[in-house]
Amino acid sequence: MELLTVTLNPALDLTYRVPELVAGGSVRVAEVTGRAGGKGVNVATVAQALGATAQALVLVGGPGSDELTDGLTDLGLRTRAVTALAGIRRTIAVVPDQGDTTILLEPGSRVTAPEEVSDQVLKEVAAALAEGVGAVVVSGSLAPGVPAELPARIAERCREAGIPCVVDTSGEALGAAVGSGAVLKPNREELEQLRGPLGAEPAALADAAGDLLTGGAPACLVTLGAAGLLLRTPQGAWLARPPEQIAGNATGAGDAAAAALALGLAKGSAGGVPDWPVLLADVVATSAAAVLSPVAGELDLAARERWLPLVRIDELPVAEGMTQ
């Protein structure tokens, strides 16, 4: 199984391990790790850890590009690079021994030829589809100047090819992807931006997620933080939670979920409708196992296997006429 990930705002990721993070003072960093990054890159490396192969389509250009592409090679990823940027941004994750991780995100440089860049990205996606990739994941923010509709256009190409596409983005780009056939992966706040206030009941979230099953989308996955993950499909809705409270670095948890979801959908597209609760358990266990790693894009495989049969899954009621 091979996965294509698309990262339209790549980064050089730095992770600082510190005993504790105190605002306003000097903090001695105990350990520094760095690697090629961006959410799509994290998805690709998790897919590799799960036994798949992966291609990484990234925007490059300017200072940091060689470091990025060399880093992708070091990670064992086949790279598809589209020159578009004036430089590669950095992200910094500060991970204390106790407490929550703090993330600093640079904005990324502006794309000055958006239509040309979009055309080149779509050509690379078409080439990967022609080679037989099993699924595509468009993940993360868009560099300034990248057209908001580009993730939707990628998803439409995938739909035409009969290949599942997961879109994990936000804002205008997420809204533009509704109806494209993409499997959308919003969090609760992003879902409410699309559908309005939803209240506290999971069933209301399930119905709102069902509204996003347009254009042939097989599923919508809503991330709810500590409350778990909600999966909505034409066949029903389920809420899943990890078997225990997990402390660590949650930076890459959503990327791990996207990788597991895409690989499960790829297997389903080859052999029929997936067993959704089984797939959801895999997504939750994989996401939780990523929290144990201090570096986004990595996961504790032993913990994943241990938690897989212990994930708590509840089927949710959905409005009449909203299942198939």
TrEMBL record:
Residues 13-268 form the Carbohydrate kinase PfkB domain. One of its GO terms (molecular function) is phosphofructokinase activity. GO terms for cellular component: cytosol. The keyword Repressor does not apply. It comes from the Bacteria. Keywords: ATP-binding, Kinase, Nucleotide-binding, Transferase. PANTHER family: 1-PHOSPHOFRUCTOKINASE, 1-PHOSPHOFRUCTOKINASE-RELATED. This is Tagatose-6-phosphate kinase. It comes from Enemella evansiae. The lineage of its organism: Bacteria, Bacillati, Actinomycetota, Actinomycetes, Propionibacteriales.
